Amino acid sequence: MERKDWRFCSQEDETISLHDCVMDGVNWAESGIWLSFENGFNVTKDNSLNPTGRHRLTGKAAVFLSNGVYLEGAWNRNCTMQTPSDPEPILLQETPIPQEQFADWSPEVLDFTWEPENQRFSIDAVDHIGFCEINFSCTELWFCWNELPEDAWFQ
C-alpha cells in the first residue's frame, strides 16, 4: 500500500474523527505503518479535501504513519473500576500489548492524539478485553481515502 494508491490524502488531523471506527488491519511497510479502516473514518466539513459542506464517512480508508514505529501499548492504563458494594475505586492492572498481538487486533477507536513536535501518535481504543492505549512514533501522519459516500454519524 502506498499513498499514491489513494485518491485523497490529508494531514489535517483536526478535521478527522476516528471515534467509533474499527481499526481492522495493520501493515508494516518499508516507509512506515498503515492502519486500515475497512468501514472508513469521518472527515469533517472543514477538511480542504471535503467539498460536500457536510461531515462525511469515507469508504475504505487508512492512516499512514510515515517512518512509523510501534512504541508500546497497554490495556487498562490508568483505569479504575467501582462496584456498588465498594465506594472506593479499584485500580485495574495494566497489561502490555506486544507488537505481535497489536498486528492481529481490531479495536474500536475512541480518540487519537497527534503531537507533530514530539513525533508521537497515540490511539485510545476499546475491545473485548477493555480500554487500551497504543503509542507510535512517526515523522508524518496521513489520512487517506477514496470517497465520501455518506454522512458521518455526527452530521
Which short descriptors sum up this protein?
single chain; 155 residues; mainly beta; 6-stranded antiparallel sheet; 1 helix; globular
Strand-helix topology:
Layout lengths: L7 E3 L5 E2 L3 E2 L2 E5 L2 E6 L4 E2 L12 E2 L3 E6 L2 E7 L4 E4 L2 E6 L3 E2 L2 H5 L4 E8 L4 E7 L4 E7 L2 E6 L4 E2 L4
Antiparallel strand pairs: 1-16, 2-6, 3-13, 4-5, 5-8, 6-7, 7-17, 8-16, 9-12, 9-15, 10-11, 13-14, 14-15
Q: How would you describe the overall organization of this protein?
A:
The chain has 155 residues and is mainly β. It has one domain (3-148). The chain has one helix and 17 strands. It has one helix at 99-103; strands at residues 8-10, 16-17, 21-22, 25-29, 32-37, 42-43, 56-57, 61-66, 69-75, 80-83, 86-91, 95-96, 108-115, 120-126, 131-137, 140-145, 150-151. The strands form four sheets. The protein has a six-stranded antiparallel sheet, with no helix packed on it. It has a five-stranded antiparallel sheet with strand order 1-16-8-5-4, with no helix packed on it. A hairpin with a 4-residue loop joins β13 and β14. The radius of gyration is 17 Å and the shape is globular. The chain starts with 7 loop residues before the first strand and ends with a strand. The mean pLDDT is 95.
